[in-house]
Amino acid sequence: MSTTIDEFQRHIQALLLDLSHIVDPDERRRVNTRLETTLQEVIQFRAAISLRDEVGEHLFDLIDRETEKKDEIPENVTDEQSDGLCTKCNSPLVDDIEFCLGCGEQF
């Protein structure tokens, strides 16, 4: 049997509506918080899937490509700048930019 996101969301919502069987108020609050957090994750996951469907690609592939772009050293970084490394992440610094392209550290 295959469970869908909708079924899982409805299951979590049903559990949220039926917390009266938990006698201990602290435990009821903990379970309520856990279920509400889970429900939020389901909603965010559904939005990510929707975005992926709109884009037509797997989101992780897009993220990986963007990460690879950030890891590349810009062409305008010269050998003279090689001793100008970021003190936070050791990425090469670019003269005309006042922050590190690798981590965003301000200089």
Q: Can you give a write-up of this model?
A:
This protein is mainly alpha-helical and 107 residues long. The protein folds into two domains: 5-72, no CATH class; 73-107, no CATH class. Helix content is 53%, strand content 0%. The chain is built from three helices and no strands. Helix 1 packs antiparallel against helix 2. The termini are far apart.
**Which structural class do the helices and strands define?**
mainly alpha
The number of domains is: 2
Q: Strand share of the residues?
A: under 5%
- Element order, helices and strands? HHH
Radius of gyration: 23 Å
Query: Mind summarizing the main beta sheet?
Result: none
Cα end-to-end separation: 56 Å
Q: How many strand units? A: 0
**Mean pLDDT over the full residue set:** 79
Return residue spans where pLDDT drops below 50 for at least 5 consecutive residues: 78-82
3D shape: elongated
What's the gist of this structure?
This protein is mostly helical and 107 residues long.
What labels describe this entry?
107 residues, mainly alpha, 2 domains, 53% helix, 0% strand, elongated
Topology:
Layout lengths: L4 H13 L7 H31 L3 H13 L36
Helix pairs in contact: 1-2
